[in-house]
Amino acid sequence: MRHLVCVTVLLCGVAFGQQAPVIAVKTGRLLDPVAQKVRTGAVVVVQDGRIKSVGDAVPPGAQVVDASGLTVSPGFIDTHTHVMLQGDPTDVEYDEQILKESLPYRALRASRAMRIALEHGFTTLRDIGNEGAGFADVDMKKAVAAGIIVGPRLFVATKALAPTGAYGLGGTSYSWQLDMPKGVEMCDGPDACRRAVRDQIAHGADWIKVYADRGYYRRPDGQIRSLPNFTQEELNAIVDQAHRTNRRVAAHSITPTGHAIALAAGVDSIEHGQVIDDATAKQMAQKKVFLSPTLTVIGYVDAPRSKTNPIWNAIAKASEESFRRALAAGVQIALGTDAGGFPWDQINQAKEFKIYVDRGMTPWQAIRSGTVVAASLLGKESELGTLAPGAYADLVGMKDDPLKDITATERVSFVMKEGVVVIPSGR
Questions:
Q1: Which of 52, 360, 379, 400 shows the greatest Cβ crowding within 10 Å of its Cβ?
Q2: CB neighbourhood size of 352 (10 A)
Q3: What residues have CB less than 8 Å from 311, skipping those under 6 apart?
Q4: Which sign, positive or negative, has the C-alpha torsion 225, 312, 349, 35?
Q5: Cα-flanking dihedrals φ and ψ of residue 61, to 5°?
Q6: Domains and CATH numbers, the chain
Q7: Dist. CA 25–CA 295, nearest whole Å
Q8: d(Cα 50, Cα 394) in Å, to the nearest integer?
Q9: Diameter of the chain by CA atoms?
């Protein structure tokens, strides 16, 4: 007697080598962020997890998914997350996770975090540093791809890089006799930094993450600056090695101090960028360097961190004008939230869309930041954030129209990832 039963037509088709079934998703209003156009009553035809076509009719014999009461867009993309973290507004929360939680426990919490993100409509995440979790983020990526756990597809940056003494546990009261865990991989000198890049790529890193600055302070003239981490030669070596191995580089950089060395080295994205002056904005636009603003997390950590260091309140205030400056200069802004820096189950990542609109983006620009522009940052323009034939069938449905009320993105009621319905439209 057979003990393996095909539970769906799709699985049976795959099991017996038959052609996968055609799925037709009927939409009420379909948002095309590439063309910035809305189609009424469009049908998205899906096969083998990819978009086959977008038309007006249901093909004969197709399985119908009815989302006709919803406004549908490509799946959301968050370009700055930490699935191995669950909120760290102060050093205390960060240190407790690194010191008291085993890697298996952190992985279990990460699997829950990814499920939450997917149910909020985020079908793709760039996970930009696993904070002392070895290469567990690579395992999480593989588990999602293999269907072992349900979550967004991941692009991972593994350990992230910083020089000796520039990153570790947040607390300062640990004995110097102890070799405490580190949240990053530390490297010193151009050769060692090249070796670290090669090691991370060998273990499955899609991106290389560097910490360009730290130690934020205000100068006598009132300008906010920071301590640079790497020397220019070290950062140049990191970027060169990553690029020659077909990997892109993301730089954690808060102030113009970090921006200057990161941009000179040729990084591909600036992470956070809460303090951006005119010169930085102009250079980022000219070099086509992406900005991942992570404004949601700034709102979360501002108050608790300012209690011990008032500079964080100043950084939060500076971030408002910096965002507007980057937007006006034509910098490519890709939605990034720093989820994991805030609890996944307390704040919806899609809040970031509203913050962008509040700071000057149009609703179309905000939606593009989390679809088209984010896909471009990942180098996946033809596969993600688009409705083009051949793209992944990642779709998100909302009862309300985000072009009229951007907070509709926070109330997702239908999610499809690679042609598989995660949240049915009737929810």
A1: 52
A2: 28
A3: 216, 217, 218, 224
A4: negative
A5: 80, 0
A6: 9-74+386-423 (2.30.40.10), 76-349 (3.20.20.140)
A7: 34
A8: 8
A9: 81
Angle of the 256-265 helix axis to the 278-287 helix axis, nearest 10:
20
Torsion angle, alpha carbons of 353, 358, 363, 366, to 10: -40
Mean pLDDT is lowest, of 11-20, 167-176, 282-291, for 11-20
Tens of pLDDT, residues 341-384: 999 999 999 999 999 999 999 999 999 999 999 999 999 999 99
Smallest Cα–Cα separation from 270: which of 197, 224, 308, 323?
323
Strands (E), 303-391: none
Distances (CA, A) of 266 to 59, 160, 243, 270, 380: 48, 17, 9, 11, 20
CA atoms 343, 292, 369, 241: torsion sign: negative
Interatomic CA distance for residues 274 and 281, integer angstroms? 12
d(CA 55, CA 51): 11
Q: Using CA atoms, how far apart are residues 306 and 366, in angstroms rounded to an integer?
A: 29
Supply the pTM of this predicted model: 0.95
* Least confident among 203-212, 243-252, 300-309, 333-342: 300-309
- Record the tokens describing residue 210, joined without a space: 């560097």
- The interaxial angle of helices 256-265 and 232-244, nearest 10 deg, is 50
Helical segments of 343-384, H only: 351-358, 363-369, 372-378
Q: From 137, 121, 117, select the one nearest 129 (Cα to Cα).
A: 137
Identify the band that residue 19 occupies on the pLDDT scale cut at 50, 70 and 90: confident
377 within 8 A of 250, measured Cβ to Cβ: no
The tally of CA atoms less than 13 A away on the side-chain side of residue 327 is 19
Q: Map tokens 């993301």 to a residue.
A: 250
